[in-house]
């Protein structure tokens, strides 16, 4: 669903008196050693998301009074997500400037009640044998927005991670510095958690209640689902969810299934997703909104032109005649064998299943949608043709089954740019010779389709066909 705290990047600004070592800190982060020759100012650098602990790209900006004027300083202060005020621990004047110039100037630009965290960074600690903490504490008590590392940072990367953390995990919503107390909202949230866990309402958490709170079974029981949606008018899904996403043997939704279900809701009804996110309290801060929960990617036609996509969710239409094994194929995708499917309540079956799988080491979601064909002359509607990949399925044990999918391919997909995979189901049964001009393998070869995929849900379910479909969708 998006980076933590809804942010797509973090911008760190380094301020301080000339000579305190701002530029050296930035350059040493890049080169992993302190430079001998230091320019007046370092160019802005970007740390890619994949090398940061929080997986959020980070921009680091240096300010130099020697090269930049006050207008540039004001602009950078307004653009920053977090400001590091650097001082030299061996230079009292740079410490005095924190309160005589830098902090008042920042407040003047952002306002006294601004929410931009400020991190005090003591540099050149190797030049002294004492801690600057006693000098800094009075400043910390005076300015609530200040952050100061609780321990001595042992390397440069820790400093920038701490600054990033001040933005992504701010303490302001949880803790009031002036009173050294939790905020009222934090107390309310903790009280609610306590009450949820206090099953017998005796205002004491027993060992049993504590263990239930942290059962770590990786699933949501019906009670846990009910508690989760206690702030919503209704639960976001019904009993059919057990046949849509992965669950455990009790029918409880797993973490993998939970994420898949929200992905399905986002794909089918984004307005409904936004409604539930609001009820659950997602992004209620003034400067953020629920749109950070979704990512809008480029148009599909551009993906087809470039033969690759940045999307992680793909729609697959599973099309074939009745009795071809489509429902079995779809239930197999969420791990249900033929034997497990025998006990399914047919009233709780839906035309959708969704699950995640790996495509070249990357997690992708494949959303399967079942489309029934009732006769040779049946037509497909535009919504049934709109997808990322098509799975044409026939019963390999029935001699007339392949003709349906062959006709469908020639009518709708022979000139289409949508990738098509033909799957023969019930591969555990004797394979029938198809009553059609070409046998399935020859048909696939003639029309330059991927090799025919065989599928069976009897016993261990192979994932080859699902991975092939997801790969074809991701790399059309």
What can you see in these coordinates?
- With 476 residues, this protein is an alpha/beta fold.
- It has 17 helices and 16 strands.
- A 6-stranded mixed beta sheet has the order 2-3-1-4-5-6, with helices on both faces.
- The protein is elongated, with a radius of gyration of 30 Å.
- It starts with 9 loop residues before the first strand and ends with a helix.
- Residues 7-169, 311-475 form the Miro domain.
- GO terms for molecular function: GTP binding; GTPase activity.
Number of strands: 16
* Multimeric organization: single chain
Major beta sheet summary? 6 strands, mixed
Strand order in space, largest sheet: 2-3-1-4-5-6
Number of helices, counting only DSSP H or I runs of 4 residues or more: 17
Low-pLDDT runs of 5+ residues are 150-154
Helix content: 25-40%
Q: Looking at the structure, what is the overall shape?
A: elongated
Mean pLDDT: 86
Rg over CA atoms:
30 Å
User: Span from first to last CA?
Assistant: 24 Å
- Structure class: alpha/beta
Percent of residues in β-strands: 15-25%
Topology:
Blueprint: E1 10-16, H1 22-31, E2 45-47, E3 58-62, H2 70-79, E4 82-88, H3 92-110, E5 118-123, H4 133-142, E6 146-147, H5 156-168, E7 175-176, E8 181-182, H6 184-197, H7 207-213, E9 219-220, H8 222-228, E10 253-254, H9 255-268, H10 270-279, H11 300-306, E11 313-321, H12 326-333, H13 338-341, E12 352-359, E13 362-373, H14 382-385, E14 389-395, H15 401-413, E15 420-425, H16 440-446, E16 453-454, H17 464-474
Parallel strand pairs: 1-3, 1-4, 4-5, 5-6, 11-13, 11-14, 14-15, 15-16
Antiparallel strand pairs: 2-3, 7-8, 9-10, 12-13
Helix pairs in contact: 9-10
